[in-house]
């Protein structure tokens, strides 16, 4: 429940409170934290992926609503990142993570900041994550869910 509150309710409330001032000034930038999980159902992390799908959907919708106001919204959707999340989620031995060198949180945050400054609608970090996010548009949701589930399986 805490994750749902932070990723959806708190994000929505903070955005609702901050946007009017930005619109009034005629300038502002919003950077929301999504995930590669924003693009597909994800077995083993279903609720997490659902909250991140909310973040991406809200961000893209607000972006269109705010056209012409001087305010942009960007969703940063990182792939696996070295944050300690994998240990907390007990997935460090998953096919998605095990044996891979992950980008640092600082590198991902810097990339997101640059995307926000450029007014990009969203940024997916990591080559394989970009391929998955792009390809997920052309696959049935059941197929992307299956792929996500296979990536979460333990290999150890």
Characteristics:
single chain, 156 residues, mainly alpha, Rossmann fold
Please render the helix and strand layout as text.
Elements: H1 2-25, E1 28-33, H2 46-65, E2 71-78, H3 85-88, H4 105-117, E3 122-125, H5 127-135, H6 141-152
Parallel strand pairs: 1-2, 2-3
Helix pairs in contact: 1-2
Structure, explained:
The relative contact order is 0.18. Helix 1 (2-25) runs parallel beside helix 2 (46-65). This protein has six helices and three strands; from the N terminus they run H-E-H-E-H-H-E-H-H. The protein has a single domain (2-152), classed as 3-Layer(aba) Sandwich (Rossmann fold). It is mainly α and 156 residues long. It has helices at 2-25, 46-65, 85-88, 105-117, 127-135, 141-152; strands spanning 28-33, 71-78, 122-125. The radius of gyration is 16 Å and the shape is elongated. The protein has a three-stranded parallel sheet with strand order 1-2-3, with helices on both faces.
């Amino acid at each position: 429940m805490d994750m749902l509150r932070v990723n959806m309710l708190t994000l929505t409330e903070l955005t609702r409170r901050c946007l009017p001032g930005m619109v009034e000034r005629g300038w502002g930038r919003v950077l929301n934290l999504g995930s590669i999980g924003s693009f597909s159902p994800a077995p083993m992390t279903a609720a997490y992926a659902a909250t991140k799908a909310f973040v991406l959907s809200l961000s893209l919708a607000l972006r269109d609503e705010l056209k012409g106001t001087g305010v942009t919204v960007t969703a940063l959707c990182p792939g696996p990142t070295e944050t300690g999340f994998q240990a907390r989620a007990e997935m460090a031995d998953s096919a998605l993570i095990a044996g891979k060198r992950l980008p640092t949180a600082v590198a991902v945050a810097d990339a997101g900041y640059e995307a926000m400054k450029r007014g990009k609608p969203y940024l997916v970090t990591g080559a394989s994550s970009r391929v998955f996010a792009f390809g997920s548009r052309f696959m049935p949701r059941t197929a992307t869910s299956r792929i996500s589930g296979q990536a979460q399986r333990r290999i150890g």
